[in-house]
Amino acid sequence: MKDIITLGIESSCDETSVAVVKNGREVLSNVINSQIKIHEKFGGVVPEIASRNHVEAISGVTKKALEDAHITYNDIDNIACTYGPGLVGALLVGVSYAKALSYALNKPLTGTNHIEGHIAANYITHKDLKPPFICLIISGGHTHLVHIKDYDEFEILGKTRDDAIGEAFDKVARVIGLGYPGGPKVDKLAKEGKPNIELPKTHVDGLDFSFSGVKTAIINLHHKNPEINKADLCASFEKYVTEILVNNAIKASQELGIKIIALAGGVSANSYIREQFINLEKQGYKIYYPEPILCTDNAAMIASAGYYRFISGVTSDLTLNAVPNLKIEN
After folding, report:
1. In this model, does residue 37 exceed pLDDT 80?
2. DSSP 295-308
């Protein structure tokens, strides 16, 4: 069987990334141009600035990805690009560039879902992982509990009703003065504290999530007592949200009879969350999570997800457009 080389392009938020992946699992290159330093002074991503930086970076990032993979444009079998969800202006840069390449090179184009990309990051790190399994997608913009029935067949079991978990991390960090990006900074400070602060429990039916209540509680506690121990506050917040994630994952596992759980998305790099899920292995669960570089936005995961779409016969034409509120497709 001929190897399939996929060029992946990711520009949904503030990373311009291009990768080359062979057969959906072997990364030949994965170049990421991050804009974190640019957006730090604003306390978050500024969409217009992100878009302009994508325009400036994408050609150079693509050239570097090809050089690192030691291939030429002629070696590419498929071009996969993120077309949603994400910031519309940022998405349009990657989609437009991918369509131009597809047209100029006469290569197939596969529009790829960013959320499905996060799931596929696990296929790169874990060559043995195959559907079916349960995946918990936790990032700055998403909190989904998904039944992965096949490589291109998904069922959403639960999702956030308000804030995404990464959004809650960022807001907590901003309130207590840690800055942006909040997730890694909360994780680091929490290691110095104890989870000894009582936080109000939010009850949500089924397998959905809700993080706005705990975020508001943290904000109110800090406003009422600015001298509160910030490390303890971070540790208490982390413990609270992790319990929700673990409990919902266990409930989904019991309902489906599946004891394979994968983590995905930027927040899956959180050390405490990983530790608590790894503890489930003592109860017979198999836990998977991507290596750190594949947790945040990157093109290797898009190339992997795009590969599985491509081999199932899914391609896009040149009318492909950005869909900022794209849902997971079944």
Report:
1. no
2. TSS-HHHHHHHHHH
The count of C-alpha atoms lying within 13 angstroms of the C-alpha of 88, restricted to the half-sphere facing its C-beta, is: 4
Per-residue pLDDT tens digits for 272-302: 999 999 999 999 999 999 999 999 999 999 9
Rounded Cα distance between 306 and 117, Å, is 8
Please, are residues 308 and 24 in contact by the beta-carbon 8 Å criterion?
A: yes
- Helix-strand-coil split of the chain, %, nearest 5: 45, 20, 35
**pLDDT tens figures, 213-235:** 898 898 899 889 888 999 999 99
Phi/psi class of residue 137: alpha, beta or left (left: φ > 0; alpha: ψ in -120 to 50)?
beta
Tokens matching residue 269: 């790099």
CA distance 298 to 134: 22
DSSP labels, 250-310? HHHHHHHT--EEEEESGGGG-HHHHHHHHGGGGGT-EEE---GGGTSS-HHHHHHHHHHHH
pLDDT tops 60 at residue 212? yes
Q: How confident is the model at residue 40 (pLDDT cuts 50, 70, 90)?
A: confident
**Angular region, 240: left φ>0, alpha ψ -120 to 50, beta rest:** alpha
Strand order in the sheet with 133-138: 153-159, 143-150, 133-138, 260-264, 286-288
User: In the CATH scheme, what is the homologous superfamily, with its name and number, of domain 5-120+294-311?
Assistant: ATPase, nucleotide binding domain (3.30.420.40)
Q: How far apart are CA 273 and CA 245, in angstroms?
A: 9
| CA nearest neighbour of 59 among 105, 96, 22 | 96
Kindly list the domain boundaries of the chain, sorted by start residue. 5-120+294-311, 130-290
Considering the domain 130-290 in this protein, what is its CATH number?
3.30.420.40
Q: What percent of the chain has pLDDT over 90?
A: 78
